[in-house]
Amino acid sequence: MAPEFQKNTTYVSTELESGDVQENFDDDGREKRTGTLLTASAHIITAVIGSGVLSLAWAIAQLGWVAGPAVLFAFSFITYFTSTLLADCYRSPGPVSGERNYTYMDVVRSHLGGVKVTLCGIAQYANLVGVTVGYTITASISMVAVQKSNCFHKNGHEASCSIESYPYMIIFAVIQVILSQIPNFHKLSWLSILAAVMSFAYSSIGLGLSIAKVAGVGHHVKTSITGVVVGVDVSESEKVWKSFQAIGDIAFAYAYSTVLIEIQDTLRSSPPENKVMKRASLAGVSTTTLFYILCGTIGYAAFGNKAPGNFLTGFGFYEPFWLIDLANICIAIHLIGAYQVFCQPLYGFVEARCSQRWPDSKFINSEHVVQVPCCGAKYSVNLFRLVWRTAYVVVTAVIAMIFPFFNDFLGLIRAASFYPLTVYFPIEMHIAQRKIPKYSFTWVWLKILSWTCLIVSLVAAAGSIKGLATDVKHYKPFSTQQ
């Protein structure tokens, strides 16, 4: 197997007294973990609740009052169930006393091995790269929405407010360059907690505005059990494609398996990590589902079959403009933290492999202590970390600027990674770990679940390809947002 996919077994080689080892390091020589149920839940909520929560009204409009909420509940259960299977695979061979696996790839290597390890790495890290590019675009859209909101308030709702998003992408990238110097996932808890608070804030604002719209005098919009009406709202083919896309959007809205193992690796060893991770997953998925159902259904009631793709950045609301501004600022702050949650596993992967490949390189492995001016604090700087992480942020920002429709391409990436990372690998590893007999009742229904989710991924991929083809036809590089 290629060296870059070998398990990371780097240990702390510094000579320490036994008391120091116990106090500052785990029994495997790595930095002592301090994560708790609260920090793990915050990481999950930050990863799961994105600004996509504000597009769920559109998704339910495509599916209707029955299928929309049903799909939401179905994928919340599927995601929680498979996350519990994955949490049990963190250690091997046993879920409590086995050897730790530090990354998703390590988990797959321990339980399945072979070419599946490589396929897992491709799916996971392609998804992480895609998400970080998509978040750069989405954050800039939110900041553009702030400026547009003020323009509409000043000049009227019919005013032409054309605003460049590229300066905001650059600002977002500069912030990420600074935050990317956070060494690893273990130091990210404060940022995830802040981002989680922001996600609650803008979701609550969107929900409150939707309730106010529904309760408003003379409010009347068209809704139906089956969603948008063929021949009235959409054509027959549009109904099919948009339904596919809506199902995919809902399925992918829950996915956080790409970072689950890395989150679990931050947890203290006592109580057992798998038990804490299962509780964190329950808390995170339950909280997410509550917000998704409320924002989706009440948003649909507010806008009906004409629900916009995002009712904060798409201007389903214009007033009060200052509240719209606040919500979009919260979205941008949330995405700043979410970007780090998704890029830290990628950073760790590249740095661990480079350290293994060139163990004697001072550029890669040496830490330099720098005195922070004014406050007297000390900060450890690694030159390779500084250069490579900065380069990565710059590249994602440039891609975002060149391809402003990348979010539709991200839908295709997520369709390709959702099935293997959220469903297939957790189920297959659970079968291998528990040695479930082939063709037994448990084996059969797990396989049925797996194949069902594969069909959903293929359907969502078809919808994404259709949307991508439409975007490419109208693609104008470096165009001003209207």
UniProtKB/TrEMBL annotation:
Assigned keywords, A-Z: Amino-acid transport, Cell membrane, Membrane, Symport, Transmembrane, Transmembrane helix, Transport
Entry's transmembrane regions: 37-60, 66-87, 188-212, 280-301, 321-342, 386-406, 412-432, 444-465
DNA-binding among keywords: no
Cellular component annotations (GO), alphabetically ordered: plasma membrane
Coiled coil: none
Ranges of residues in domain Amino acid transporter transmembrane: 34-468
Domain of life: Eukaryota
One Gene Ontology biological process: amino acid transport
A GO molecular-function descriptor: symporter activity
InterPro entries tied to this protein: AA_transpt_TM
Signal peptide range: none
Short name of one Pfam family: Aa_trans
Annotated localization: Cell membrane
Family: Belongs to the amino acid/polyamine transporter 2 family. Amino acid/auxin permease (AAAP) (TC 2.A.18.2) subfamily.
Protein name: Amino acid transporter transmembrane domain-containing protein
